[in-house]
């Protein structure tokens, strides 16, 4: 039943019940507005980058948040928008297959980890520890969120075992992380970049996820009516001296970085 309810929630997200954030111009002379579909895991730095871009270039930015798959569905159905920021390579591949994007620029790398509260009170050290009796687990729905999709593929035949054990399924990785941060669950599977955004938490690296490096990328939507300005924002997001600095400040790893050793 809990999985059905989560699935229905994901469908609602896919139908457009998504979060919006509008970076308003401080001047009434804004040149126009760019609409960006942004994966939830990138929300904090992208809001800051959008604000900086608006100040420098005079274009307001409207940000729509959700799981990457849900956002892609929304962009395909509405046939509107300027940029699409996906948290994983697979969703970008789907967007290419459906013919909705043009140029793609990798921004940062992300890897799945287990998120727990500070001190790791349940002593979770390995993936199988999540299946112990009494361990409450939050996971993201693979039909809406990139992290769920990547983890489902990595677990293969074991996916159903973890799905059945999960206490809750949520539509985005940030919802899952909030469960762990608030203590509603004992552990959550999230992107490594998400953990530093929540105080009182820490991450646990597990061998099954060590090599699951995914690029979070920005892509130009073919629906854009102002592609030149949309690409200006895309390159601003990727610029080491602009968006790159903000991503780094928030704990994200550049897509140009070498794969980090998860167990130094």
Structure, explained:
36% of the residues lie in helices and 25% in strands. Residues 1-18, 23-29 and 258-264 have low confidence and may be disordered. Helix 2 links the parallel strand 2 (32-39) and strand 3 (59-66). The protein folds into two domains: 17-109 and 215-254, D-Maltodextrin-Binding Protein, domain 2 (3-Layer(aba) Sandwich), CATH 3.40.190; 112-209, D-Maltodextrin-Binding Protein, domain 2 (3-Layer(aba) Sandwich). With 264 residues, the protein is α/β, with parallel strands linked by helices. It has helices at 2-14, 43-57, 68-78, 89-97, 146-155, 159-165, 173-182, 227-238, 243-249; strands at 19-23, 32-39, 59-66, 83-86, 101-110, 112-117, 137-140, 168-170, 187-191, 201-204, 214-221, 253-254. The strands form two sheets. Strands 1-3-2-4-11-5-12 form a seven-stranded mixed beta sheet, with helices on both faces. Strands 8-7-9-6-10 form a five-stranded mixed beta sheet. It contains nine helices and twelve strands.
Please name the defining characteristics of this protein.
five-stranded mixed β-sheet; disordered C terminus; alpha/beta; D-Maltodextrin-Binding Protein, domain 2; single chain; about 260 residues; disordered N terminus
């Amino acid at each position: 039943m809990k999985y059905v309810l989560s699935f229905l929630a994901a469908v609602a997200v896919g139908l457009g019940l998504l979060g919006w954030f509008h970076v308003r111009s401080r001047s009434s002379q804004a040149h126009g507005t760019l609409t960006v579909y942004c994966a939830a895991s990138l929300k904090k730095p992208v809001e800051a980058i959008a604000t900086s871009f608006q100040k420098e270039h005079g274009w307001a930015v409207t940000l729509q948040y959700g799981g990457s798959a849900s956002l892609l569905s929304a962009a395909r159905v509405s046939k509107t928008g300027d940029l699409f920021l996906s948290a994983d390579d697979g969703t970008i591949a789907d967007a290419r297959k459906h013919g909705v994007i043009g140029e793609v620029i990798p921004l940062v790398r992300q890897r799945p980890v287990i998120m727990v509260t500070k001190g790791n009170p349940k002593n979770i050290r390995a993936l199988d520890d999540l299946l112990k009796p009494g361990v409450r687990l939050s996971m993201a729905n693979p039909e809406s969120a990139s992290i769920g999709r990547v983890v489902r593929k990595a677990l293969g035949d074991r996916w159903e075992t973890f799905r059945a054990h999960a206490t809750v399924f949520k539509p985005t990785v940030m919802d899952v992380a909030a469960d762990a941060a608030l203590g509603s669950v004992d552990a959550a599977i999230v992107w490594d970049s998400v953990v530093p955004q929540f105080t009182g938490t820490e991450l646990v690296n597990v061998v099954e996820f060590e090599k699951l490096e995914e690029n979070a990328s920005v892509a130009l939507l073919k629906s854009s009516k102002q592609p030149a300005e949309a690409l200006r924002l895309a390159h601003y997001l990727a610029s080491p001296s602009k968006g790159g600095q903000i991503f780094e400040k928030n704990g994200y790893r550049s897509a140009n970085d070498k794969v980090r050793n998860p167990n130094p």
